[in-house]
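Supplementary Methods, section 5.1.

A reviewer requested that the exact input to the structure prediction be made available. We therefore reproduce it here, unchanged from the version used in the analyses.
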Amino acid sequence: VQLQASGGGLVQAGDSLELSCAASGRTGSTYDMGWFRQAPGKEREFVAAITRSGIRTYHPDSVKGRFSISRDYAKNMVSLQMNNLKPGDTAVYYCAAAVTAPTVWDPNGYDYWGQGTLVTVSS
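The structure derived from this sequence is encoded token-by-token as follows.
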């Protein structure tokens, strides 16, 4: 499966942004999907995940209440709605797909990765 992330950009603190991840190839509905981010000099960090059924979602405390993951099966797309952005959210955001149910916060559990989209939040 190929993943294409989009929607990044430069915003101010407090703004909102929605990232999208389009899946092509094998249908995206057969995968658990996740979003990760990586800031310069830091390790890749878990941001959100959603099961292939769409029933369960996961968000770490750092973004809980501000970020929300969802998926559109008809469009084979996963979105990440980000509200009340902070300068600390600045990073390259990656979407990822897992064939088997992963430990959602572990990037090693994901099999396919998008190219990343840059989000920059100014203060």
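The two ends are 37 Å apart (CA to CA). These observations are discussed further in the main text.
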